[in-house]
Write a structure and sequence with these properties.
mainly beta; four-stranded antiparallel beta sheet; 11 strands
């Protein structure tokens, strides 16, 4: 069982920055692909970014490319999402997710992920 705990959310003005962290309680963190998703009330969960088990491959939804950066520190069992130039439309609950793999690129599909955090609220004011 993998437990994921997000932190770093909050209220920020448009144009500002936040860094989300997701700490994983698992011995073999480096065997998991990690992703960030977001969801607004009444809407489907949306892919934001993902990173391979090694950190060598990353993918982003088009709307955050050039503004968000996903990274991981396998020694600290933590994945990060650096969010810059935030926009009001980035307001959502952000979820960290993980699935076990050491092959292939990380997945953009929420259904592929086996473990999910509880979410952290990000609110961007205009």
């Amino acid at each position: 069982q993998v437990q994921l705990v997000e932190s770093g959310g909050g209220l920020v003005q448009a144009g500002g920055s936040l860094r989300l962290s997701c700490a994983a309680s698992v011995r073999t963190f480096s065997s998991y692909a990690m992703g960030w998703f977001r969801q607004a009330p009444g809407k489907e969960r949306e892919f934001v970014a993902c990173i391979s088990w090694s950190g060598g491959t990353t993918e982003y939804v088009e709307s955050v490319k050039g503004r968000f950066t996903i990274s991981r520190d396998n020694a600290k069992n933590t994945v990060y999402l650096q969010m810059n130039s935030l926009k009001p439309e980035d307001t959502d609950v952000y979820y960290c997710a993980a699935y076990f793999t050491r092959f292939g690129p990380p997945s953009r599909r929420a259904s592929r992920y086996e473990y999910w955090g509880q979410g952290t609220q990000v609110t961007v004011s205009s």
